[in-house]
Amino acid sequence: QVQLVESGGNLVQPGGSLRLSCAFSGFNLDYWAIGWFRQAPGKEREGVSCLISSEGATYYADSVKGRFTISKDNTQNTVYLQMNVLQPEDTAIYYCAADPDQIRSRLLRPLDWDYWGQGTQVTVSS
What we know:
Strand content: over 45%
Number of strands: 11
Largest sheet: 7 strands, mixed
């Protein structure tokens, strides 16, 4: 059974940093894609970043390139999203997702991903 549990969301001031964690189980990350998505109030869910372990590749939305970094800890079955230089427009619920289709997953389209966590709230405000 696939399980994804996010943590680390919080209230942070503009320019600050946060690290989100996604503890996963039920699949082998060597053969699956794992990613982060977000949904702001009144907006559609959007892709933020994903990791394709079999390729050693990471993908990012243009809006977060250079500020966010996705990484993994295989020993802990955890994936992280380090978020730096946070801005108010980064405010959203952040979701961790996983999917066995590593080809389509790199496009970061939410509808392509089959397994989701419950989300963690990130609020950027002074």
